[in-house]
Amino acid sequence: MRNETIFLKDYTPPAYLIDDVHLTFKLDPTKTRVLSRIAFHPNPETTDRDFFLHGEQLSLISATVDGKACRPEIADEGLIIAVPDAPFIFEAEVEISPSTNTALEGLYMSNGMYCTQCEAEGFRKITYYPDRPDVMTTFTVRVEGDLPVLLSNGNPAASGDGWAEWHDPWPKPSYLFALVAGDLVAHPDSFNTMSGKQVELNIYVRPGDEHKCAFGMEALKRSMVWDEQIYGREYDLDIFNIVAVDDFNMGAMENKGLNIFNSSAVLASPETSTDTNFERIEAIIAHEYFHNWTGNRITCRDWFQLCLKEGLTVFRDQQFTGDMRSHAVKRINDVLALRGRQFREDNGPLAHPVRPDSFVEINNFYTATVYEKGAEVIGMLKRLVGDADYAKALDLYFERHDGDAATIEDWLKVFEDTTGRDLDQFKRWYEQAGTPRLTVTDHFDNGTYTLHLKQETPPTPGQPKKDPRVIPVAVGLLNPNGDEVVETTILEMTEAEQSFEFKGLAARPVPSILRGFSAPVILQRDTTNAERAFLLAHDTDPFNKWEAGRALGKDTLSRMVTNGTPPDNAYLDALMAVLRDDTLDPAFRALALSLPGQDDIAQTLFDAGLTPDPDKIYRASQTLKQTLAQHLQDLLPKIYAEMHVPGPYSPDAEAAGNRALQGAALSLLSRLDGGSAASRQYESADNMTQQLGALSCLLTIEKGEAELAAFRTQWGQDRLVMDKWFGLQVTYAAPERAAATADRLTKDPEFDLINPNRFRAVFGALAMNAAGFHDPTGTSYNLVADWLIRLDALNPQTTARLSTAFETWRRYDGDRQSLIRDALERIQSTPGLSRDTSEMVGRILN
Ligand code: ZN
C-alpha cells in the first residue's frame, strides 16, 4: 500500500494522451469482466515517455498493444509496459468482484444493483487506465447484464435484450465515468433548453420509491432554468439521469449525464422528509447539476485544484438556494455551517489550505475547507470586483477554458484579465490555512469616526508564519437613534494593520462590521451587550442583526460557564422583542432564537485561553433554555398557534419558516408543560417535520418512550426514516447515557455497518453530542475507536471521515487528552489500517 506524500510542486503532464476509449462490461456479482480498448498517443507537450496505467484490486486476464499479446509488469498500484513512441491501441480484459466491494469505491453493489463511484481515484479499481483528471477523452460503453436498466454516461447509442450501449461525446476524465445496472424504475420528465433542445430527464429508484421523486425532479428543472438565466449555461446532452443509491459514501456525484445520489440526498416525501431534508435535497441536486459546467466541461488539472470545481459549485448552489428561498436565512445557515465545521477544522490539527499543497490520500481532502471556505473565497472575489465584473469574468472563464483541465492560476487570471487587478495577494486565501482574527478598535473625534483593523492568523500545521491577506470588510454605520448614516461600504484591507476614516458625522455612530459575513474571519472587538442589543434591534443588515443576537448568546453562555453568572435580562428581553416582531420573517426569528451550540462555546472558551468543560457547557445551555422558556412563557403558546400552517403540507420556504418558528416555540414550551403540546403534535402530525420535531422535544425532556416505539413500528420499512430513528436517540441522549445508547443501537438488528448512512446516524450523532462524546470516563472515545477499527477494514473513506470526531482534542483537559490519545493510538496501531484512516489519525495526533 502506497503511503507516501504527493506534492503539488511535483506535478508533471501525462506522457500519453487518449483519443478515445471503448469499454465493455459483462456484469456478474463476483466475476465482472471489463474489456477496454484505449487509443493512446504521445503527449506532444512533454518528452516523458514512461507509460504507466493505474490499477488496483484487478485480476488481469489479458493485455495487448496494437493487437500483440504483451506481459505487463504488474506493480502494487498499476501496470508498466513497453509501448511505442507513436500512437497505439492498448486492449485489456480484467476481472473484478463488485459484490464484495464494501469500500463503495469503483464498481460495487447496493441492494442488488450495480453502481459506481469513481471520484477521486476509483476508476483504477475498474480497469487499467491513466486515472488522473488531466487525461480526458470520449467514452463508448457497452453494458451487458440480465437486468432491466443498464445505464452509463452520455447519450444512449443502441440497446437490445440484455445489453445497452452509451456514447458520451464530451471528453471527460475517468473520475466522471459511471455505470448503473439494476431493477429500477424511472420517474420521467423532460426539459426544453434555452436554445430549444429537448432533454429527457429521469430519476431512477428502486421499485417502491417512485412516490419520492417528484420534488427532486422539480428541483432539477429549477436548477436547469437558473443556470441558463444566471450563468448562461445550457445543458449539453439529450438525456440527464439521476440514480438513487442506498449505500453511498458521500452526498452525490456529478458523473457526466448520470448523476449518482445517496438516496438521502434525492428521495423526498412530506411524510418521510423534514423541511431541512427538502432544502438540502434541492441544494444537492442543484450542486451536482451545476457541476456539468463547473467541474465537467471545465475540470481540474490535478486533485490539488479540487476547490476550482467544488468551491465554485458550492458558491453557485448557495446563490441558487438564496434565489429560491431567502438570501438572509441562507446566509445565516451557511455561516453556521462554516463556523461549525470549517472553523473547527481550520483551528485544529487538520487545518489545510483551500488548495492543499500535499496529500497522502486525496479522499481526505473533500473537506469543509475545500468546499465551504472555497466558496467563501469566491464570494470575497465577487465582493471585491463587483457583480458586473464577476459576471464578465465567469463568461471569460467558460469561453477560455471549456474543455480544459484547469488550475487556480487559470481561474485567477480570468479575473485579472477582466478587471486589471493584481490578485497575487488575494491568492493567499488559497495558499494559507487558518482563520484570520480581525481585531477592531474605533474612535470618534470631531465628526470623524476611525476604525482601526488588525489581522492575524494563528500558525497551522506546516505554516508557522502568515502574510496579511486581502480582506473585504463590509461596514455600515448607525446613528444612536437607530438610523443608518453610512450604508454598507466595502473596506478593502490589505495590510496587517490599517485604519479607515468616516468624516462629517454628527454623533459617534454604532458600527455594523463584517456585514453579510463579508469574509471568513473571526471578528474580535470589545463591545458591550447594550450595543449588541442595539444592533439586534436596529441593524439593517439581516446577517449582522442575527449575529448581534448570536454574540449576546455566546457572551451569556460563556459567562454562565466560567463564572456561573445568571443569564442577563437584557439578552432575554432582546430575544423576546425579536420573537414578538411579526415584521420579521419567521425563519429568521427561529434562527435568532436558536442558541449557540456547545462545540461553538467550547471553541470560544479555548480561544480565550480557557479549558472548556463539556459538562459545564451542557448544563449551562440547559439552564439557559429553561430560563428562556420561563421568560417567554406567555408568548410561546401564542407563537405556537400563530405559526400553524393550514392545509396540506408544502415544503416551500414560507411554510417551512413558519414550521421552524413553531418548532422552536414548541421546544421551549415542552420545558414548561411536561411535553403535553409535543405529544399532541406527535399524534396529529401529517408530515415528518412535525412528527420528528415533536419527538425531539419529548426526548429532550427525557420522555417520548412510547412515541419512539410507535415511530419504529410505523417506519420500520423505510431505511431513510429509520436513520432518523437511530440518530435521534443518540442526539438527544443525556450525556451520561449517550455512549450506552449508541452501544445499544449497534446491537439492533437494523444496525448495518456496511451502510454509511446508518453508521453515521449512530456515530456521527455520538460525535456531535458534545458532552456525551466527551464523557469524562472515556466510554464514548473507546466505543467510537472500537467501531472505527471495525469499519476501517470494510470502508476506509467513511472511517477516515468520522475520525474527525477527535480533531478538537487539544482543547480539553489533560485527562481527556490522554484518554483520546490512547483511543487514537489504538486505532493507529491496528494492523492493516487503511491509508485513509492512518493519514487522518496521524495528522490528528501530531
Ligand atoms: Zn461538488
Q: Beta fraction of the residues? A: 15-25%
> Structural class of the helix and strand makeup?
alpha+beta
The largest pleated sheet is described as:
8 strands, mixed
Assign an overall shape: globular
Low-confidence region ranges: none
Helix content: 40-55%
Keywords: Aminopeptidase, Hydrolase, Metal-binding, Metalloprotease, Protease, Zinc
EC number: 3.4.11.2
InterPro entries: Aminopeptidase_N-like_N (IPR045357), Aminopeptidase_N-like_N_sf (IPR042097), PepN_Ig-like_sf (IPR038438), Peptidase_M1 (IPR001930), Peptidase_M1_dom (IPR014782), Peptidase_M1_pepN (IPR012779), Peptidase_M1_pepN_C (IPR024601), Peptidase_M1_pepN_C_sf (IPR037144)
Pfam families: DUF3458, DUF3458_C, Peptidase_M1, Peptidase_M1_N
